[in-house]
């Protein structure tokens, strides 16, 4: 028998012994109508700051309810100081990239506008909701922030020189296929758009001291595949998979 | 300027200098209606055996057309002798796993029925079409075979002892996070269903001499994420990404 999946909810409220947590309309519908939980049943809560908490349902109404925090079941586990920078693509694949980044463990997700990026807008709130849902699903206690769309050129101009950049350039030979396990510290991974980078962008990225150009094999990967592959290489060499 | 994406088509026909390749209804619609190609225009062809060929359109009709092979533009590049075994999940994520496996480079894709697999049927033809589409997209010259749904227990009973198994067990501690780069030869990767494996399945897999239990980090990955992560670890350590 497969046990019923553990219900984990992200909330905005502070979590501590005895704290009361109100349940709004969306969560009430999910908990009390869809999952049919009742007063006395338990769920797990996390808020990205206080770890994971067991909570008991103290009120279960159609449109609202309440929970009471009982005890911490897991401490806050921060991901490594790793950012994922990616150029937004088609909606479904952009959603996937955000979901995958949250599952794989990043601190920040940054949609970037490149010379060949078509979409000039993103729905930051929708992408942030995807990151929350992925954290609920994967057992994480942290939710990476999804930033607004930033111009790659601006990002590079203001780059913090202490943060290394793993640049996944699929069009030029000469990249390494493994990272240096001693190159610890803050990192960012940059995944290109489907149309690739412009020559100017490539030249600039290759010329920067903090850039490591990494190869992701002999086939051309879609952006969402490349994101997971790059995160795997990084996490297994420099991150919390070691 | 982004160049127009190169059109690559998988065909069943033999490819050699001067060979004529008929274009059926589906490809005619795509080439001549959607992409508006005309006689004299060029496309790339591959059939999984003869590498990639440049071909010229010699006839462009509404429902049929013809191509003539000009010259080979890339040799056949076989992937490593790696299988991906996975338990089918929801339709969209199953499609993604097949797409990702073809992109990442596997020889064979095997849907397996485990104790906790819900789906007792797969559409092998649809999954095979996804593998072909992924190969067209990623620049590959090989298309992995998608097998019919096989029972995991039967597969393990008939297992070829020369083929090592990378078992991604997310529920038990003690797995390694890196593979032995000297363990070359045929391999298979096994990704579990969302509900995990049964205790019997786990015990059996852990007890087998050819099994390497691998950890994919401290968070629980969805099956499609786990597939790409496992393929990345394998390809970068033992495969053609080195």
Automatic annotation (TrEMBL), chains A, B:
Top-level EC class as recorded in UniProt: transferase
Keyword Cytoplasm annotated: yes
Swiss-Prot/TrEMBL catalytic activity: uridine(1498) in 16S rRNA + S-adenosyl-L-methionine = N(3)-methyluridine(1498) in 16S rRNA + S-adenosyl-L-homocysteine + H(+)
A molecular function (GO) term: rRNA (uridine-N3-)-methyltransferase activity
Gene3D superfamilies, alphabetized: 3.40.1280.10, Hypothetical PUA domain-like, domain 1
A Pfam family the protein falls into: Methyltrans_RNA
Alphabetical list of SUPFAM superfamilies matching this protein: alpha/beta knot (SSF75217), PUA domain-like (SSF88697)
GO cellular component: a single term: cytoplasm
NAD recorded as keyword: no
Keywords noted in UniProt: Cytoplasm, Methyltransferase, rRNA processing, S-adenosyl-L-methionine, Transferase
The EC number(s) this enzyme carries: 2.1.1.193
Domain Ribosomal RNA small subunit methyltransferase E methyltransferase: 80-235
Domain Ribosomal RNA small subunit methyltransferase E PUA-like positions: 27-64
Annotated compartments: Cytoplasm
Source domain of life: Bacteria
GO biological process, one term: rRNA base methylation
Physiological role: Specifically methylates the N3 position of the uracil ring of uridine 1498 (m3U1498) in 16S rRNA. Acts on the fully assembled 30S ribosomal subunit.
Stated family: Belongs to the RNA methyltransferase RsmE family.
Xref: NCBIfam families: PRK11713.3-5 (NF008696), RsmE family RNA methyltransferase (TIGR00046)
Name under which the protein is recorded: Ribosomal RNA small subunit methyltransferase E
Source organism of the structure: Litoreibacter roseus
